[in-house]
Amino acid sequence: MDFFHFTFYTLTLLVITGGIVGFLLALTGGGGSIVCVPLLLYMVKIPDTHLVIGTSAMSVAISALINLFVHAAKGNVRWQTGVTVSLVAVVGTLVGSQVGKMTDGHHLTLPFSLLMLVVAGLTLKRNHRAGNGLPSSHPTFHPAIVWPSVLALGAVAGFLGIGGGFLVVPALLWFFRFSLVEAVATSLVVVSAMGLSTSASYAISGKVSLAITCWLIVGGVLGGVVGVTLTERLKKREDIIRVLYAGMLLVLALYMLFKSL
């Protein structure tokens, strides 16, 4: 899709899509690419799936960076853990994205949606490790469990062309005892790193549209402001964010299950 051939209607849909992505990233740390990809395919009607995946990864990564700085200004980000997790996850992302470009992603729709249902259920079940005392920069599980898991979630994110926030947030909750707000904010470090890695891989193959990315980011900034504002208001009522996050996963999982039938 060429920048100069966009109609006003198409631009509006791109900004709306970006707004939804930015809002979800700021509020929950996840759901960006999972929402962005189907919206670009079925609402904006961009026919090239791999172009959608590559472009979505780039726009989500940039939106995550913007929201990250807003969260950082409010002191919600745990940088040491975020950077360490990012370095490990990106290795998996680079491998996964290479495999993903050679694979029809429709084959993984069913297991992926089932994975989302599992994560939603675990999110609704209050994590007693999270929020007890000060958050830790070191894993509360054995490193032999933590780092292979981080590597694997990076590979899954790269393969599916997603930011992976819906996997990173639970990982930070379970492995590092973060509060939900800290997990959401810190996950943006990882999401931006993985998204940039994935989009770079697709860009090398000519599967990223800078024009579409720009319009998605415009919407992402607007949606991110609303999301961060709402997160701050609910900071002391994390159960509400937890339910919203799990509800988002449930809706998206059911949608993907429906599309896979």
UniProtKB/TrEMBL annotation:
Record carries keyword Mitochondrion: no
Coiled-coil boundaries: none
Protein topology in the membrane: Multi-pass membrane protein
Key words of the record: Cell membrane, Membrane, Transmembrane, Transmembrane helix
The keyword Cell membrane appears for this protein: yes
Subcellular location: Cell membrane; Membrane
Superkingdom of origin organism: Bacteria
Pfam families: TauE (PF01925)
Membrane-spanning intervals of the chain: 20-44, 51-73, 79-96, 108-124, 144-176, 183-204, 210-228, 240-258
Entry's family note: Belongs to the 4-toluene sulfonate uptake permease (TSUP) (TC 2.A.102) family.
Identification of the protein by name: Probable membrane transporter protein
Organism (species): Serratia surfactantfaciens
